[in-house]
Write a structure and sequence with these properties.
Elements: H1 16-36, H2 40-53, H3 61-67, H4 79-89, H5 95-102, H6 113-124, H7 132-141, H8 146-163, H9 170-180
Bound molecules: fe (ii) ion (FE2).
The site of fe (ii) ion has 5 residues, from helix 1.
């Protein structure tokens, strides 16, 4: 079976393996868009976010810094802001798509559906082999209960960061708090 192909922007810097990941993420958001019956315009927004999100994932730090210097962010998180800046410079005007790409590694409280679906697909796409049955079950639930799955995926990602003694940034906490805001089941 040939590797899935994906429409990458001309400025992309990706390995073949990365390109295959991007194609799987795009296929997953397209599947959810079809299952949810969203408009063609909305489905296209999700697909553009997927195509763009890792387009600079394999670019060297100096290229990333040229697009969008990131100050205090660790260098492995620069590719999202850099790809967002590159996309904007090359004609992308949809703020939701740009924010989906910019914050895809960390989460963002201000996301619309493009950011939320990209975040889910990036984590649940079928090329990620660890704990595959659980990820497949989560992916299957997305069209029916996207909010619940988004909370579960975000909790898993935060737990991973904590378990591996990684810093958890402000964007991620604000995103988490936005997902549980209004939940009155807290026993506090
Ligand atoms: Fe990705």
């Amino acid at each position: 079976m040939s590797a899935p192909s994906v429409a990458l922007p001309a400025w992309a810097v990706v390995t073949p393996a990365r390109g295959a990941h991007i194609a799987r993420v795009e296929a997953l958001v397209a599947r959810w868009a079809a299952e949810l019956g969203v408009s063609a315009v909305e489905a296209e927004r999700w697909r553009r976010a997927a195509q763009l999100h890792d387009a600079l994932r394999d670019a060297p730090a100096e290229v990333l810094a040229r697009y969008a210097p990131q100050g205090s962010w660790p260098v492995n998180l620069w590719h999202g802001p850099a790809a967002s800046a590159a996309a904007e410079r090359n004609g992308e005007t949809d703020r939701g798509v740009l924010d989906a790409v910019r914050y895809h590694s960390v989460g963002h409280a201000g996301w619309d559906e493009a950011g939320r679906m990209l975040f889910l697909a990036d984590y649940l796409e079928p090329g990620r082999s660890h704990d595959r049955p659980a990820l497949d079950a989560l992916a299957a639930r997305v069209p029916g209960e996207p909010d619940a799955v988004l909370r579960e995926v975000t909790a898993r990602r935060i737990a991973w960061l904590a378990h591996h003694a990684k810093p958890i940034g402000k964007d991620t906490w604000e995103f988490w708090n936005s997902l549980v805001a209004g939940d009155s089941s807290s026993s506090r």
